[in-house]
Write a structure and sequence with these properties.
- The structure is a homodimer.
- With about 140 residues, chain A is an alpha+beta fold.
- Chain A folds into two domains: about 1-80, Arc Repressor Mutant, subunit A; about 90-130, Dna Ligase, domain 1.
- The first copy, chain A, is about 45% helix and about 20% strand.
- Chain A has helices at about 1-10, 15-30, 35-45, 50-65, 105-115; strands at about 70, 80, 90, 100, 120-130.
- In chain A, the strands form two sheets. Chain A has a three-stranded mixed β-sheet with strand order 4-3-5, with no helix packed on it. A two-stranded antiparallel ribbon of chain A has the order 1-2.
- The longest helix of chain A has 14 residues, at about 105-115.
- Chain A is globular.
- The interface between A and B is large, with 38 and 38 residues.
- The structure holds a DNA duplex (30 and 30 nucleotides).
DNA sequence: TGACAAATGCAACTAAGTTGCATTATAATT
DNA sequence: AATTATAATGCAACTTAGTTGCATTTGTCA
């Protein structure tokens, strides 16, 4: 938890209990979290006081500083995961579990190819695979 | 236009003027369209009578039958393009222009790789590159 | 410990998308 | 051409994600 405080200090953000809890939940979640997920998690610790405006503001602050990363899948809902390392996702259409994939090298080749063939200046990309996770495809 | 009527007949949908116009606009647009785009286009032909409920219902009907395809980019808004052929997109962060890319062969390799390494059953994927289009990067 | 800026709660708002119901239009049938 | 069943539409009310202005509270640092 002191790591998180340190991280906030570096980024000149105040280490408030709510902010620490938000970061902590996002960091320790195996799947990206949306506003509702976090609100119900936080309401347990904060006596049902959490308001969505705080959460949405926090998402903006933290993702602008790259402490968390915003993901948008096909349902159009914003979810957040810890950190800023780029990766790709396997998304189960049945149970919504999200698994991480590292395909950076493969994608670099593709980006190079596109660079060769177009004058488009790519700044980032998203790649998501949808289907059934091992337990839902039994 | 008779092609579209034919297409609707095959899919057992009535060829109403509104439906034909929606399909026609989506077919002839170089960039995917959302509800607002279509509503303002249609209001010119239909004396400002278009309601969003019709549009959203139409999107559902037409995309379930694969006459159009729903796309969701990072802003979370649903856009629609004609047909069902899978492709990838270059999206300009500045002017929002969307360009199509065909990378099917490259992606098939990636899917095969994932199949080898996981037990996830992929049914489809999305791949979008964000950045600046040639005219916006000048 | 005091002061200032940042963080929060609250409530009202916007905008995307949905739904039930009454009405209208299409297409197949006679 | 008239009839009819069904699909399509308009309307209005609703839901839900996300935003914003403002007053209050809380961390931080001098």
């Amino acid at each position: 938890m002191d790591e998180l405080k340190q991280l906030l200090k570096i980024n000149k953000l105040k280490a408030t209990p709510i902010r620490l809890a938000i970061l902590d939940f996002i960091k320790n979640s195996s799947t990206p979290l949306n506003e509702l997920d976090l609100r119900s998690l936080l309401n347990k610790s904060f006596k049902n006081k959490m308001t969505k405006s705080t959460l949405y503001r926090e998402f903006k602050t933290l993702s602008q500083l790259s402490l968390i990363k915003e993901l948008v899948f096909k349902d159009g809902i914003r979810r957040y995961e810890f950190g800023n390392h780029h990766c790709h996702h396997l998304i189960c259409s049945n149970c919504s579990t999200v698994t991480h994939l590292v395909l950076e090298k493969d994608l670099e080749k593709l980006e190079a190819k596109i660079k060769r063939n177009t004058n488009f200046k790519i700044s980032f990309h998203t790649l998501e695979f949808y289907g059934l996770c091992p337990s839902c495809s039994l």
